[in-house]
Write a structure and sequence with these properties.
By secondary structure, this protein is mainly alpha-helical. The protein has a domain of 80 residues. The chain is built from four helices and no strands.
Length: 116
């Protein structure tokens, strides 16, 4: 009886500790995406308009995450929805950094400066 209770308690404790681990992964992923957006703006591969759109997308994801966590439960399905949204945001960041819009604008500005 005691052994079963100890095992159940250990399992419950392990599950309770797993939720913050998932939350930490989501927070880390969001921070990484923010860093990628800021680096893209700094190096000119993301235009200010693209950055604003990506930032709004990040804000919507953050709001969704807080809404899910607000009731005290962060279910597996809710985590999956947040990860799905973060995956799409990551793809949008990659596309913005590699779509040549900002590179073209940067070259045009450089050519204008060189012509003076």
């Amino acid at each position: 009886m005691k052994k079963g209770l100890t095992t159940a308690l250990a399992a419950a404790l392990a599950m309770a500790m797993a939720v913050p681990a998932f939350a930490g992964r989501i927070d880390h992923r969001q921070q990484n995406q923010q860093k990628r957006i800021h680096q893209g703006v700094r190096n000119g591969s993301i235009t200010p308009g693209e950055a604003a759109c990506l930032e709004r997308q990040q804000l919507r994801t953050e709001r969704m995450k807080h809404r899910f966590r607000g009731d005290g439960k962060f279910t597996r399905r809710e985590r999956a929805r947040v990860h799905h949204r973060l995956h799409h945001a990551s793809r949008h960041i990659w596309r913005a950094k590699h779509n040549r819009r900002a590179m073209h604008n940067r070259r045009a500005m450089h050519n204008r400066r060189g012509a003076w």
